[in-house]
Amino acid sequence: MKPTVLVVDDEKTFRIVAEEALSSEGFAVTTAASGHAGLAAWQREPADLVILDRHLPDTDGIAILEAIVKEAAERGVDTLVVIATAYADVASAVQSVKLGAFDYLSKPLQLPELVVTVRKALEAKRLRAQVRQLTGQLAGRAAASLGEFIVGASPAMRAVVDMVDKVAEATETTVLVQGESGTGKEHIADLIHRRTPGRKDGPFVEINCASVPENLLENELFGHERGAFTDAKGSKRGLFEEADGGTLFLDEVGEMPMGTQSKLLKVLEEMTFRRVGGTRDLSVSVRVVAATNKDLAVEVERGGFRLDLYHRLDVFHIRVPPLRDRREDVLPLARAFLARFAARQRKAAAAFAPETEKVLLGYDYPGNVRELRNLVERAVILSTGAVIDPSCIVISGPARPGAAAGEGRAFFSAELRDGRPPSLEQLERDYIARLLELAGGNKTQVARMLGVSYPTVAKKITDYGL
User: Fold this and answer.
1) Which of 125, 144, 171, 253 has its CB surrounded by the most CB atoms within 10 Å?
2) Among 330, 337, 459, 340, which Cα is nearest to 407's?
3) First to last CA, the chain
């Protein structure tokens, strides 16, 4: 379908020349001789681009620009407007752009200039639509991933979501999310952001404080000015600036160095900071959500965390319970992961056998939801039919104490040998042997399940004589 262009101008010669030039370039062109006629034509069938004269016999082109921009927003239509006039001046250009014009051209126009401007505007429109589409896809994927991690019918998780809804209304309040590794703290932080009015359309920026070297963390958070250090050849915005208007998620905040903790405290108190090497204060509006798998109160007693920062972060506390304390969520989560990975890997797997569900329910998941997700992904890889049987469930940890016989059977058993537990070497040998059995001797698949390279697996198999 050809891109559509509407030319609104009272000069007949310009309308004719512009229509011929743009039509020869492959655009579908319509014209109007007055402002009201042009607006009526656009209202009947919105064009992709409007070339609009600034001075029209019946009205001011700025008034038509405002009307198109307003109605396009209301109707959800993406139309770009280029103002063209023989009375060019800086004030008019600034006013037009502020009111939503894409560009501003001076008449008499050279046809090559007109064609280039139209092409540029329509390309910008195409890219804008592409960005919206990709943003929607990413948001959908993020929402799906988010839903998978927090889905569940347990009272414990319903209480967590209820807490999220409450704090979402307090748009400035700092939140501390505490929970074991793998419980989905980052997804709770994302959910807080998505449900916070006035911030959900802003950026969600995250950093793992444990993964950034101490000497770089301050630079990541606050940025730096040119010349702040040897390699600072230009200025750099920090994550607080990037998160302005949205949410900054500080994961593993318990690992933050003491020196950076004191600087973070000042930012939380005043929402101002200086870049490394800077001399002026910068102000931001950011909600901070911090997460930790540690008990920060204990860390304060040990001297590893500042008491004042702890109290400043712990304004609103959300504890995410471990999966073993909410077993009602195991099967809903597992089924959500099954649907996701079966579709991704184009497998027929659609359900768990009843015996498989017993195994899933009988395990304690020391790695929490993340471990369950990985377990289901491995099961889908190993599956050969529509129903996943227990042989596809690769569990390397202990079953829940007191489980019924056969329920929650471990992937391999750590039985006593000559009155002593097996060595780590023997456990590793048995583990790899069992994986080889499940994978039908496929070493590449074993390497994939272990998350190591093929040469590593091949060497282990040779060393253990498997």
Assistant:
1) 253
2) 330
3) 63
C-alpha to C-alpha distance for 328 and 265, rounded to whole angstroms = 39
CA-based torsion, 34, 35, 36, 37: positive or negative? positive
Query: What is the dihedral sign for C-alpha 282, 288, 293, 295?
Result: positive
Does residue 414 contact residue 426 with C-beta atoms inside 8 Å? no
- Residue range 338-361: mean pLDDT, rounded: 88
Report residue 457's pLDDT band, with 50, 70 and 90 as the boundaries.
confident
- Would you say residue 310 has pLDDT above 90? yes
**Phi/psi at 4 (nearest 5 deg)?**
-105, 140
- Specify burial of residue 391 (Cβ count, 10 A radius: 0-12, 13-18, 19+): middle
What's the pLDDT tens digit per position in 45-86?
A: 899 999 998 889 999 888 999 999 888 887 778 899 998 876
Among the listed residues 49, 35, 108, the one whose alpha carbon sits nearest the alpha carbon of residue 82:
49
DSSP secondary structure letters along 145-212: HHHHHH----HHHHHHHHHHHHHHTSTT--EEEE--TTS-HHHHHHHHHHTSTTTTTS-EEEEETTTS
Q: Residue 130's pLDDT band (boundaries 50, 70, 90)?
A: low
Tell me what the mean pLDDT of segment 344-373 comes to.
89
Q: Cβ(381)–Cβ(448) under 8 Å?
A: yes
Nearest Cα residue to 377 out of 459, 302, 292, 445: 445
269, exposed or middle or buried, with CB in 10 Å at 0-12, 13-18, 19+? exposed
Do residues 457 and 450 touch, judged by C-beta distance below 8 A?
yes
Q: Is 254 left (phi over 0), alpha (psi -120 to 50) or beta?
A: alpha
Q: Are 324 and 364 in contact (CB under 8 A)?
A: yes
| pLDDT of 264 over the 90 cut | yes
Confidence class of residue 138 from pLDDT cuts 50, 70 and 90? very low
Q: Which residues are bridge partners to 352 per DSSP?
A: 388
Mean pLDDT of the chain: 83
Specify whether the backbone of 245 is left (phi greater than 0), alpha (psi in -120 to 50) or beta: left
Q: How far apart are CA 135 and CA 142, in angstroms?
A: 10
CB 338 within 8 A of CB 376: yes
Describe the chain by its helix, strand, coil percentages, rounded to 5.
50, 15, 35
User: Is a pLDDT exceeding 50 seen at residue 380?
Assistant: yes
List the one residue out of 386, 389, 392, 397 whose CA is nearest residue 427.
397
